[in-house]
Design goal:
The chain has 490 residues and is mainly α. Among the domains are: 1-61, no CATH class; 80-330, no CATH class. The chain is 74% helix and 1% strand. The protein has 25 helices and two strands. The protein has helices at residues 10-31, 40-58, 63-76, 78-96, 99-108, 116-131, 134-151, 156-173, 178-187, 191-219, 229-238, 247-257, 262-280, 282-289, 295-307, 317-322, 332-350, 353-362, 368-385, 389-406, 411-425, 433-442, 446-449, 454-469, 479-489; strands at 310-311, 324-325. Strands 1-2 form a two-stranded antiparallel ribbon. The longest helix is centred in the middle third of the chain and has 29 residues, at 191-219. It starts with 9 loop residues before the first helix and ends with a helix. The relative contact order is 0.15.
């Protein structure tokens, strides 16, 4: 704030947040519904930023300062925006090359009645890691698994719970996921440091969930196996499925382990996916390009896979949905939302409104455990009130980033807490965009599947427990290191 600016009152600081929450609630549940993310929510963020700007002017903050805050906020998310564009391209070439279909093909074959819940959770986890999207996993493989489970006589709540647990585990751990990129951008750390640190809470959570599904599975009556040959046949008829396709994801994993930065690692994976499409999938190349072989067909098909929506058409409608990807263009709504959220966060921060709210919350957080618990609680609060998982990551991320550093906690602690609480609990709220969408897609009420989403319930508990027990909490050695790290990540 400028010298003439005064400190905002708590009421003034809360007005833009309340305005945002009320307008989003009205927008999602009374007007646009599932289409709210197509642009109306983005505009509401801009309107809320305008309200925050008016309050900033009221308390004496200059427009230039708030505009600088907007630019700085958007700049902090720029690497994530570039990564999201490459993620769209990679998803396209991995679909065209048969890599993702191969994962689905082999994954479906491990299903059997006794371990169905465990297997469905694992299959969804694998597909979600490969695609970076819990939504597309649930809307494709999830629907198929729900039908199979129902034929086996298993409760739809149990089936949906295992599907969602696996899909959200994969979403959290995939470098292709938008939320997995957004959380470290908000906290001020890099993608792979975030994933590595998050594994300490996420892996135990999914292991506990799998054990619970296994116990439940062995208490269920066995039934005859369900025939999934139609799905496998549709994939076989449209792709050359073989083990060589897994070379590409293995290469990307090796690059990640070797700590190659995210952008070049994803670019390598994208280009290798295009190359493998040319080598192994001439039929898919011809379908996407509209030509019959040749260099022009290769070029058109691979380029389309990277930049726009492609669909491999089969006689199986469910498989058709599964074999659709949006390329770079499919990421534009998410990028639009992120930019608008950054505008809102930038004005709130520059005007000192976030700091004012944070001061009130942090008064109650005296220890590391209570700070992490407060962060998790704030994320869940925004999922309940703002009805959007992105806002539940962005706003608390901006609120707590400086506090974590001041307490000597590295930013990966914050990014992990954001994912362990904001990402996974969004699907448990009936009026959240995630909860409403998954309930509609699966045809299972949120309240019915909620008790069986073991991973989603355990994750926030796990991260708070780690905080209070001081397990795997990364700290700075001194204040100077914290200051230097902040300068590097700004």
């Amino acid at each position: 704030m400028t010298e003439s600016a005064r400190k905002p009152t708590l009421l003034e600081a809360l007005i833009p947040v309340v305005f945002l929450i009320v307008l989003l609630f009205f927008n999602v549940f009374y007007v646009f519904g599932d289409e709210a993310l197509d642009g109306s929510n983005q505009l509401i963020l801009i309107f809320s930023a305008a309200v925050a700007g008016l309050i900033g002017i009221r308390i004496g903050v200059s427009w230039d300062k708030m505009q600088d805050g907007i630019v700085s906020s958007i700049s902090s998310a720029m690497s994530s925006i570039l990564i999201l564009l490459l993620i769209g391209a990679l998803a396209g070439t991995w679909m065209l090359s048969g890599i993702v279909p191969a994962m689905i093909y082999y994954g479906l074959q491990i299903l059997n009645p006794t371990i169905f819940l465990v297997a469905s959770c694992i299959v969804c986890a694998v597909v979600s890691i490969a695609t970076g999207s819990s939504w597309s996993t649930i809307a494709t493989v999830g629907i198929a698994l729900l039908g199979i489970g129902q034929a086996l006589g298993i409760s739809e709540g149990l089936i949906a719970g295992s599907i969602i647990s696996g899909a959200y585990f994969g979403d959290k751990m995939s470098p292709l996921s938008d939320t997995t990129n957004l959380a470290p951008a908000m906290a001020g750390t890099d993608l792979f440091t975030h994933i590595q640190h998050m594994a300490w809470t996420t892996v135990p959570s999914i292991i506990i969930a799998l054990i619970l599904y296994l116990i439940i599975g062995f208490t269920l009556d066995n039934a005859a196996p369900v025939n999934i040959d139609d799905v496998l046949y549709a994939i076989e008829m449209n792709f050359n499925i073989n083990g060589w396709l897994f070379i590409v994801p293995v290469v990307v994993i090796v690059l990640i382990v070797k700590k190659l930065p995210a952008l070049p690692a994803l670019l390598v994976g994208t280009l290798l996916g295009g190359l493998f499409a040319i080598i192994f999938q001439p039929q898919a190349i011809d379908e996407v390009s509209g030509l019959q072989g040749g260099l022009e067909a290769y070029y058109i098909a691979v380029m389309r896979a990277m930049y726009t929506e492609i669909t491999i058409v089969t006689e199986n409608e469910m498989v058709n949905e599964l074999l659709t990807t949006g390329g770079m263009s499919g990421m534009l709504y998410t990028i639009w939302l992120i930019i608008c959220a950054m505008v809102f966060g930038g004005v709130m921060e520059a005007a000192g409104l976030l700091q004012r709210i944070t001061e009130e919350v942090i008064k109650w957080a005296h220890s590391t455990g209570s700070l992490i618990a407060s962060t998790a609680g704030t994320c869940i609060f925004f999922n309940l009130t703002a009805s959007d998982q992105y806002l539940a990551i962005v706003v608390p991320g901006r609120m707590y980033a400086d506090t974590y550093r001041e307490r000597g906690l590295k930013p990966e602690n914050l990014s992990r807490t954001l994912e362990d609480s904001a990402t996974v609990t969004s699907v448990l709220v009936p009026w959240n965009t995630c909860g409403a969408t998954q309930s509609a897609v699966l045809g299972v009420a949120t309240i019915v599947y909620l008790p069986y989403c073991f991973f989603n319930i355990i994750s926030p508990i796990m991260t708070v427990l780690y905080g209070y027990l001081n397990i795997k909490i990364n700290r700075y050695r001194n204040i100077q290191e914290a200051r230097e790290d902040k300068l590097v990540n700004v």
